[in-house]
Design a protein that fits this description.
This protein has helices spanning 3-11, 13-60, 67-80, 84-119, 127-151, 153-156, 160-183, 188-213, 226-261, 263-287, 290-299, 303-340, 342-375, 379-403, 405-431, 436-450, 452-462, 470-492, 495-521. It has 522 residues and is mostly helical. The protein has a domain at 45-224. The chain is globular, with a radius of gyration of 23 Å.
Length: 522
């Protein structure tokens, strides 16, 4: 297999990106669709509590101790080297390990449910329902760990089309059931039941897809080996530290707001945080492909390919994120006003702007992190992220007591600008022998130049009373986004990248024509 495995993964990159974009678009549309329904259906306090529970569940995901990303990395490496027996050992050993975090998630859910009324100042009439919802969400988290190990086959083998099939299924089932229960007056407990059922169904589908992808896969105790488990744990330790740091950076803010300012303030902060999360998710539709590619390149000792992946990958990540940052920073207040109301627009807009700018720094760091994962050089990345999270937490607490929730957003943005936009890229470029000034010119110069027409369009649009709802928003944003796409194509992409895109489109048209011809003959 060897190099042919990597070549196949490279050929699937455009198709995988398209699948990821489709999956992200569906999930984003459904999230926007259901968020307002949840906010109004649960009420301000209920929605704040549900947002808090969601972030606690996100923190519980850390209990996998970095094993899912570890299994993905080792599966990609062994796939490149055509080592099927080692793939059996990796998945079997990973499944054995996953029983520990599943048990810890259930125990953690019980502990949080017991302490939640005092810790988060829950109103008396929400205590019972909040405790039950926490337990149900903890059960759904427990299902993630063994299912996540098996589902790692999909990204490791660059089958993001199947991964997105699983994710779209989960989103559609979850949103459909949520609308149904909210329409019938369901509260926190009903919403938590929906999430548990949807998670269980999605994990079963993911396991079935993985089994179809690797029909020769054999799982069992005899494939669980101590050397394999030791290697996985050594890699996952640093991945775990990196996950802790990332979780503290992106989700601890809501806990800080809840403890210092109360659950109602969480509702306003959570909206800004969730939108910034969607920006980062949009970027990861592309960059999530990089870790398995980097693992295969590293296994085959292709240093120049790694340097090319870092430069091009970061540039594409910035290109993907820039339009979202510009739209939300320049028109975010109007979007919030007609989406959730004037109160949300006033209190959430400053938070939204700061968190979106922080997401821009994340675009420069995420590709570096993926490449370092593939090279098994993620220790420094983990240490830097821990330092950023500590600075984030300290600044957020200090500023929240002085200027409220917007201080928490400042506490998130400032460390990100230093660590993610400067220090981590500098370390990765040094490791791969890439001159840092040339790197910044490549990954920032062209995208920023391509974004100028969109920035001008949005600045003009912000001064006009034209955006009054979703239809008018889409109508006025589409010309600007089309202008950005044209500018990015002409300015930000290299000639060989445009040629590769045309070649891919020709192959897809030829494949479609061949398929249609075969059906006609049949």
């Amino acid at each position: 297999m060897g190099a042919s495995s990597l070549d196949g993964a490279r050929r699937r990159v455009p198709w995988n990106v398209g699948a990821n974009v489709l999956g992200f678009g569906v999930n984003l549309a459904l999230t926007v669709f259901i968020t307002a329904r949840l906010a109004h259906g649960l009420g301000e306090t209920g929605f704040g509590i549900w947002a808090l529970i969601g972030h606690i569940a996100g923190n519980m995901n850390l209990l996998d101790f970095g094993m899912q990303v570890t299994v993905t990395r080792y599966l990609a490496r062994h796939h490149a080297l055509d080592e099927k027996s080692k793939i059996n050992q990796v998945i079997s050993s990973g499944l054995l390990f996953s029983l520990l975090p599943a048990a810890l998630a259930l125990l953690g859910g019980m502990a949080v449910a017991a302490c939640a009324p005092r810790l988060f100042h829950l109103p008396a009439d929400y205590i019972a329902s909040s405790r039950t919802a926490i337990l149900l969400v903890a059960a759904s988290v427990a299902l993630i760990f063994p299912g996540g190990v098996i589902n790692s086959c999909l990204p490791a083998l660059s089958r993001y089309d199947l991964l997105n099939l699983r994710n779209i299924f989960w989103s559609v089932v979850r949103v459909g059931l949520l609308w149904w229960v909210l329409d019938r007056g369901g509260g926190l407990v009903a919403v938590a039941w929906v999430c548990l059922v949807a998670q269980a169904l999605a994990l079963l589908l993911g396991a079935a897809l993985s089994a179809r992808l690797l029909p020769w896969l054999r799982l069992g105790w005899r494939h669980c080996t101590l050397p394999t488990l030791r290697s996985l744990c050594q890699f996952s330790f640093w991945a775990f530290l990196l996950s802790i740091a990332s979780r503290l950076i992106f989700t601890a803010d809501n806990v800080v707001v809840a403890i210092l300012l109360g659950p109602a303030a969480v509702a306003f902060y959570a909206i800004g945080g969730s939108i910034a999360d969607q920006l980062r998710n949009a970027m990861s539709t592309v960059t999530m492909l990089y870790a398995p590619l980097a693992a295969q390149m590293h296994a085959l000792d292709q240093g120049e390919s790694l340097r090319h992946l870092l430069r091009r990958g970061t540039r594409v990540a910035v290109l993907v994120l820039l339009p979202g940052i510009l739209v939300l920073t320049l028109t975010g207040a109007r979007i919030l006003r007609f989406w959730l109301g004037a109160d949300y627009a006033i209190r959430t807009t400053p938070i939204l702007i700061l968190l979106c700018l922080g997401a821009g720094a994340y675009a420069l760091a995420f590709t570096c992190t993926q490449v370092l994962y593939g090279m098994n050089r993620h220790r420094v990345s983990a240490c830097l992220s821990l330092a950023e999270s500590a600075a984030n937490l300290g600044l957020s607490i200090a500023l929240a007591t002085r200027i409220g929730a917007v201080g928490v957003a400042w506490g998130t943005f400032l460390p990100a600008a230093a660590m993610e936009a400067i220090i981590l890229p500098a370390y990765t470029c040094c490791l791969l022998a890439i001159p840092l000034p040339a790197y910044y010119r490549e990954v920032l110069g062209r995208p920023l130049l391509a974004a100028v027409p969109l920035a001008v369009w949005l600045t003009w649009l912000q001064r006009q009373p034209l955006i009054q709802g979703w239809v008018s928003l889409a109508g006025w944003l589409l010309p600007g986004l089309a202008l950005y796409a044209l500018s990015a194509w002409l300015v930000a992409l290299h000639p060989d990248e445009r040629a590769a895109a045309f070649a891919f489109l020709r192959r897809r048209r030829q494949l479609a024509a061949d398929t249609a011809g075969g059906q006609a003959r049949a």
